[in-house]
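re the bet — no i am not wrong, look at it urself. input seq straight from the record:
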Amino acid sequence: SPAATKQQQSKEFEAATALLEKSARDYDNNDALLLLAELNFFSKYAYPRNYRNAFTYYNELANKGNATAQQMIGFIYATGIGNIVERDQAKALLYHTFAAHGGDTTAEMTMGYRYLLGIGTDESCDDALYHYKNVASKVIDYYLSGPPGGHTPPLSKVRLSEEHGGVYGYGASVTTEKRSRHPGGSEKSVSIAEILQYWRYLAAKQDMDAQLMLGQVYYLGTRSIPRNFNEAYMFFHQIVDKVSPGGKIPVKHSKVIGQAAGYLGLMYWRGEGVKADENTAHKWFQLGVELGDSTSQNNLGMMYLDGIVVARNRDKAIEYFKKAADQENPNAQVNLAMEYAQSEASMPLAIRLFTKAADAKHLLAYWYLAHMNEQGMTPRPSCRVAVSYYKAIAERGDWLNPTVEDAYAAYLKNDKESALLNYMLAAERGYEVAQSNVAYVLDNDKKMLDHLPFIETSKEIIQGLDEKESAFIYWTRSANQNNVDSRVKMGDYYFKGIGTPIDFEKAVSCYRLAAETQGSPLAFWNLGWMYESGIGVAKDFHLAKRAYDQALNIDQDAYLPVKLSLIKMYAKYYWEWIT
C-alpha cells in the first residue's frame, strides 16, 4: 500500500541520514555534510525538504571554508527563503564574496551581477568585470575543449510567460513570441509529431528539402526533439546518395546537396554518430565547397589554417573564410575576424565581423568584443559593454551549472517548489530570464491566467517566502535589465501597492520609461489613463490623447480599446467643460 511504501521509504531515509551523519562527525567527511545539506535543500532522491536543516549543514560547512556552502548561505540571506533568517543583503554579499574567492563559479556570477547593479553594495563596473571575466574565461576554456568548432552551446532559455502568450497575454506583451498555449501538453506534442510525420512522408518520396530539414532537426535538436546523430546521418546520406560519382548535379538541387555534404563533413570531423575521420570530413567539405555551402567553406578554411589533411595555407584559409562570411556564417565571421585582428589596419573590419557574429550569439565573438572593449581597442570602449559580453558568455555557456534548465525541467514535471527554487538561484546570479520567470510564477496580479496548471495564485509555493514582495523585487531586477513588460509590471505594482507601498508617481515613471524608451503600447495606454484621470500627474487631456494615439500607432490591434478610451475621455472632457 502507499502508506506502507512511504513508511519503508522513511526508514530508508533515516538509515541513510544516520550513515551520512556518522561519516560527517566521526570521519570529518565534508562530502557527507554537503550531501546532507543538498538532500534537505533540493529534496534530492525525493528526500523530504527541510530548509532549516539544510541551513544548519550549509552553515557548518561554510564555517569550514567550503565555497559551495558559503554561496548557498549567501543565497538564503539574500532571499530569506525558508523563513530561517531575515533577508540581509550585507550578509549575503559577505558570504558570496568568500565563495567567489574560493572559486565557486555561481558565486562569481552573483558577485558580478551585484556589483553591476549595486545590490547590497556600491555599483562598480570594474569589480563586475573582474568577476564576470573569471566566469567567461572558464566557459570559453570548456567551449574550446570540445571537438573541432567547440562544444555545442546549450539551448536558449525558456521564458515561462511566453508559454502563455506573454506577461499580459497575446497582443499586449512586448517580450513574447507567439508560442503554443500548451508548452508541455498534448497540443504542442501532437502538432510537432504531425509535422515530423509529414516531413517523413515527403522524405520517403525522395523530397530533398524534407530530407535536409529532418537531418538538420535531428542534428541540431530542439526542446521537443532530442539530438539523434544516427537519424541525421541517415537523412543527410539519402541526399548525397543521389549524386553519382562524376555525375552532373542539377542546379536546383546543388544548394541542398552542398548543405548535406557540409553536415556530413562536420559529423566526421567532430565524431558525431560516426568515428572521427579527418580525411572523410575533408572529402565532404570539398563537395560542399564546390556547391557553395558556407559550412564547408568555413571548415575547409580551418583545415588550411591548421594544416589538417592539407598543407597549411593561411591565404587559402582566409579566402574560404571570406566566402563563408559573405554568406553570413557566424563561425566564418569569427575566424576571419581573428585573422584581421592581427593587423591594426584591418582592426575595424575585425570588429565589424565580430559584431555580426555576436548578433548571432556566437560565444567567441562575445569574448573578443569584451576583451577589445576592456583593452580600449574599439572606437568607443566601454566597461559596461565589456561586462555585458562577459555576462552573456557566462549565462549562455552554462553547461556545468544548468540551473535554469533544472528549473524548467521541474516546471514541466509540475514540481512547483523545485522550479521556483532553481529559478531564484539563477535570478540571484543575474539571469534576467530567471528573474522574470520567478516574478511571473509569484505574480498574484494575473487575471485570466489563474486556471493554468502551474500558475496557482492561491497557494504558497515556498513556505515563508513573501511572494508579493519577492515578485516585486524580481520584476524590478528584470526591468533593470531592459525587460519592457517587467517595467510595466513594476508600474502596476506601484499603482496597486503589491509588495510595495502605493506610489502613483513611481507608477507613472515606470510607464513613461517603458513607453518612451522601449515602445510599449500598454505603457502608453496606461500613461494616457493616468493623464486622463490626473493620478500621479496633473490632469491633461491633450497629453492623454497623445499617449493613447501612440499606443495605437505602435499596435494596430489596440484599435478597439484605444478608441473606447478616447470616446470616454472626450465625454469626460466635454462634461468638465460644460460644468
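see?? Residues 177-189, 447-453 have pLDDT under 50 and may be disordered. told u. also The two ends are 76 Å apart (CA to CA). so pay up
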